[in-house]
Every structure is written in C-alpha cells, then in structure tokens.
Amino acid sequence: MPPSSIFNSLIPLALDRVNRIIREHRYVNLSKIQEQLAKDGLDVKRSTLHRYVVALKKRDALLARPEEDTIVTIVERSSGEVRVVKTAITAEAVAALIASKA
C-alpha cells in the first residue's frame, strides 16, 4: 500500500490554504508553490506535491462555477483523450449545437 499523503493529515483550514496557493499559481511552477508552502511550515517533497497538484487540477476541472451550468465531457475515441468543457448554456442547447454540426 502506498504511504499516506501529507495532505491527508492536514486540518481543513490548512488544506484550504494549500489549495488556494496551488490555484493562485494555476497548478504550475511547483518550485514556487513548494517555497510558499515551506514558508507556511509545510515541508513537502516535490513528487508528493506534483501528485497532489495533478489530482487537485482534475477535481477542480469537474467543479462548475455558478455561471457554468452545464458540464460536457468529450471523449475522442481514436486517442482516448478526455476533455471537460464547462459552459453557461443549457444541456439542450449544447445537444442542439452538436446535432446541427453532425
């Protein structure tokens, strides 16, 4: 079994701060994120941080903002690539747009 992540042991307030720092850096520049976390007293290995950032980015991609009422998942059959598109238009409008292009 893999070791438990340091992020699993953080209290919710500390985890919220970690997530905010990562989002402020737009999920990139791990060195800066690592440096800022160290200033807050959280010493985390780069590989552990990378795994957490990737997972957070995936989770965040599934969350919709209030103005993003519809989430569309696109799977390209030939490559297996998956994309998530969030939009303010209704599901019916998305389906109609796709049908009109087919």
Can you describe what's shown?
It is a single chain. This protein folds into two domains: 57 residues; 32 residues, no CATH class. It starts with 11 loop residues before the first helix and ends with a helix. The protein is mainly alpha-helical. A two-stranded antiparallel sheet has the order 1-2. It is built from four helices and two strands. The longest helix has 17 residues. A hairpin with a 6-residue loop joins β1 and β2. The mean pLDDT is 89.
Low-confidence stretches: none
In one word, what is the shape?
Answer: elongated
Question: What's the N-to-C terminus distance?
Answer: 47 Å
Radius of gyration: 18 Å
Order of helices and strands: HHHEEH
- Report mean pLDDT, rounded to a whole number: 89
Strand order of the largest sheet: 1-2
- Total helix count? 4
- Count of domain modules: 2
Strand fraction equals 5-15%
**Main sheet makeup:** 2 strands, antiparallel
The count of strands amounts to 2
Helix content: 40-55%
Helix-strand category: mainly alpha
Kindly list the characteristics that best describe this protein.
2 strands; two-stranded antiparallel sheet; 4 helices; mainly alpha; 102 residues
List the helices and strands and how they pair.
Blueprint: H1 12-24, H2 30-39, H3 46-62, E1 70-75, E2 82-87, H4 91-101
Antiparallel strand pairs: 1-2
Summarize the structure.
By secondary structure, this protein is mainly alpha-helical. The protein has helices at 12-24, 30-39, 46-62, 91-101, and strands spanning 70-75, 82-87. The protein has two domains: 6-62; 70-101, no CATH class.
